[in-house]
Design goal:
EC number: 2.3.2.27
Subcellular location: Mitochondrion outer membrane
Number of strands: 16
Shape: elongated
Number of helices: 6
GO biological process, one term: protein ubiquitination
Keywords: Membrane, Metal-binding, Mitochondrion, Mitochondrion outer membrane, Transferase, Transmembrane, Transmembrane helix, Ubl conjugation pathway, Zinc, Zinc-finger
Bound molecules: zinc ion
Order of helices and strands: EHHEHEEEEEEEHEEEEHEEHE
Distance between the termini: 8 Å
GO molecular function, one term: ubiquitin protein ligase activity
Helix content: 25-40%
Length: 399
């Protein structure tokens, strides 16, 4: 039977190019076998990468933590809003006497600080006396950051000392409220009374050593903070009338936050409110980051589905063209014509999988070198023989 390749410009691979194809064939063979065996990486197309899972998990965890902290600070602001305000005077004792248990769970009072006994004196300025004293020695360093290629500040508390003496808040008519456990309280209740930075001077050898070690000591900062006698203090906590008739302000037993502040109540509440807003913004930010990761994964999933759908369409179109061509030739040459273009000769096998017959023509170069399955598995849609971009593929049929 006469046997020829159709198409004037269709050339079969020469022996040389066949060998060349065999060399590059290994990697192609791998992708081809992936397509044939249905490797999940290629065929299922969708699986969340480890980095994506880590990003998603982290952003969701952080948004959860931020939301929890937001709820917590929001409830603190709500409790502050609900807390009744009292002036420190004789009436306060009467109110507490009339209250069951002689205590108010959460109340706001304001008074002037006065020590019960000898006050603390600042070691730096003898004229300053207070009831709370805090001294801190902080070491400041510059550390080389290899990621940002710059020196970044780092500080470390080397020494901290806190002293306190018992004190009361005095009202307008000399009524006093004793403040218990002031060190457990939140809020700014001390002011900086002394600050000094001791700079370190270096010789040349030190500077060389610093560049080698990636750490520079800047110096040490001495800070002194005090709650001064005579300062006006806002206290938010549990008010209780003791059996001996003294009024006490102490940390609330119901777990609400205990506040002592040298600023007024409005500022204290405003600060807590901005903390809540900050946590809310962070929670929203992390949720959006999580959503962005999900969108990214979804986009990849959609893209994979699209590629698979397009390949399927292409495969169907190829089969249709193949069947059409066979029908036409059967009509022309009669029923004895070859049915499927299959050829058992070794030199007609696909150069990539070496098992299927070559059944497609790659255009525009016109090479006939592979089967349609392998063509679809080609990573870059380039002819495996001449590397030319494949613009179209048509079925090959032999008669
Ligand atoms: Zn093949
Ligand atoms: Zn080619």
């Amino acid at each position: 039977m006469p046997y020829f390749r159709c198409g004037a410009f269709v050339s079969t691979t020469s022996v040389d190019s066949f060998c060349a194809a065999k060399i590059t064939g290994h990697s192609l063979q791998r992708s081809a076998s992936r397509a044939v065996t249905g490797d999940p990486e290629e065929m299922d197309g969708f699986h969340v990468k480890i980095t994506e899972a880590v990003c998603l998990g982290t952003s969701l965890a952080f948004s959860g933590i931020c939301y929890y902290l937001y709820r917590k600070s929001r409830s603190t602001v709500d409790k502050l809003d609900d807390a009744p305000h009292f002036t420190i005077d004789k009436k306060l004792k009467d109110i507490l006497k009339a209250t069951p248990g002689a205590y108010l769970q959460y109340a706001v009072i304001e008074g002037t600080v006065r020590p019960l006994g000898e006050p603390l004196t600042s070691p730096f300025q003898k004229e300053i006396v207070g009831v709370l004293h805090k001294f801190m020695l902080t070491e400041h360093r510059l550390v080389w950051n290899s990621l940002s290629h710059s020196w970044t500040d780092s500080e470390r508390v080397m020494h901290q000392r806190v002293n306190a003496v018992p004190f009361v808040l005095v009202g307008s008519d000399e009524t006093t409220v004793k403040v218990l456990c002031p060190l457990q309280a939140s809020g700014v209740h001390m002011e900086t009374t002394y600050e000094k930075f001791h700079q370190v001077n270096y010789g040349l050898g030190d500077i060389v050593g610093q560049y080698l070690s990636g750490e520079k000591l800047k110096g040490q900062l001495e800070t002194e903070e005090m709650l001064k006698v005579g300062a006006t203090l806002t206290g938010v906590g549990e008010l209780i009338l003791d059996t001996d008739g003294t009024l006490n302000l102490q940390p609330p037993s119901n777990g609400s936050q205990y506040f002592l502040s040298i600023s007024d109540f409005g500022t204290l509440r405003g600060d807590q409110d901005s903390v809540a807003v900050w946590w809310k913004a962070l929670a929203i930010g992390f949720t959006l980051a999580g959503a962005a990761v999900l969108l990214w994964v979804g986009r990849r999933y959609y893209y994979n589905l699209k590629v698979r759908w397009e390949q399927e369409q292409e495969r169907r179109e190829f089969k249709r063209l193949q069947a059409e061509a066979l029908r036409t030739h059967a009509a022309v040459t009669g029923p004895e014509a070859r049915q499927d273009g299959t050829d058992d000769h070794m030199d007609n096998l696909c150069v990539i999988c070496l098992s299927q017959p070559r059944n497609c023509i790659l255009l525009d170069c016109g090479h006939v070198c592979c089967c349609h399955n392998c063509y679809q598995a080609l990573p870059h849609h380039r002819c495996p023989i001449c590397r030319q971009t494949i613009s179209r593929v048509v079925p090959l049929y032999n008669v």
